[in-house]
Request: fold
Amino acid sequence: MQIVSVINYKGGVGKTSLTANLAAELAFRGKKVLLVDLDAQASLTFSMISPDEWQQKYSENQTIKSWFDSFESGAPLSLKSIVHSPTRVNSRLRQAGGKVDAIYSHLGLINVDLELATNLGGATLAQAKKNFTTVHRRLLKGLNEFGDNDYDLVLIDCPPNFNIVTKTAIVASNFLLVPARPDYLSTLGIEYLIRSVSALVKDYNDFAELNQGEKVDPIKPKLLGVVFTMIQEYGGGPMAAQRAFMGQHQTAGLTVFDKYIKRNDTLFADAPQYGVPVVLNSYASGSHQSVVEGIEGVATEFGRHMNWWM
Ligand SMILES: Nc1ncnc2c1ncn2[C@@H]1O[C@H](COP(=O)(O)OP(=O)(O)O)[C@@H](O)[C@H]1O
Ligand SMILES: [Mg+2]
Reply:
């Protein structure tokens, strides 16, 4: 079971769209995928279920917020108990065995960060370090409830910040996938992200080593690569200015996915029937848009990185 965080400091770069479509495409090809929405904006959640359904069935005690909160009450929930199966996306899958399960988010998740932060202190340095590891590995421990028979892949949609909730995702991850738009600010953001991740990994591993009592394994999340999104093509390839930004990342030594997601305002802005990512909608309608080829290509490349034969 691979755990992958989809992450970028910037909002609006296509994190959630990539997460939803990658999950749908991989499940369409037979993979078992668990989606975790860690963004308080909950756009991944609302791309799968309607706000009404969320309100009635999940908001009160079946979201990732309730799960984080349950540690404060002293009666931690199991992560398994808040996993749900969004019906629309699953009704569109083709290959037997493939599925998309989800852990939904909550607008109140923003407050969870504050509570987690209060848990970080400690009367002594040793206590503070222990608390640091305990808080940061909470999601990792939760995801340990699952194994290879449950899921091939856990895909975590991260919020556009580097708060504690985001850090719990990084600590839990084998890989980080970074969607980016080909512009200057995204370029800066990725460098900063990489430095922040390195600092977190170092702190965590230093503290883990000192941890007395429970054995804490060191972490080593690997940057899987940068996936470019919302690319505008001209004459069969990305526009020159965008190509320049894409090349810049390669020069900086980052893995950049060969395949990218094209920009298609109609398809994305039309607010396609909620519950069904663009990629599956287009299979059903039979109109094979070029944006779908991009998603398929990214999924294949992603699978290759995971050593999956698809
Ligand atoms: N390939 C694309 N072409 C056009 N619009 C897109 C594309 N991908 C995402 N969008 C739109 O851009 C906005 C931001 O995308 P989103 O996936 O929510 O980004 P993030 O999660 O990084 O904030 C959304 O309105 C989405 O519908
Ligand atoms: Mg998002």
Remarks:
- The chain has a mean pLDDT of 91.
- The pocket of magnesium ion (ligand 2) is lined by residues 15-16, 39, 43 (CB under 6 Å).
- Strands lie at 2-6, 32-37, 99-103, 153-157, 175-180, 222-228, 233-234, 237-238.
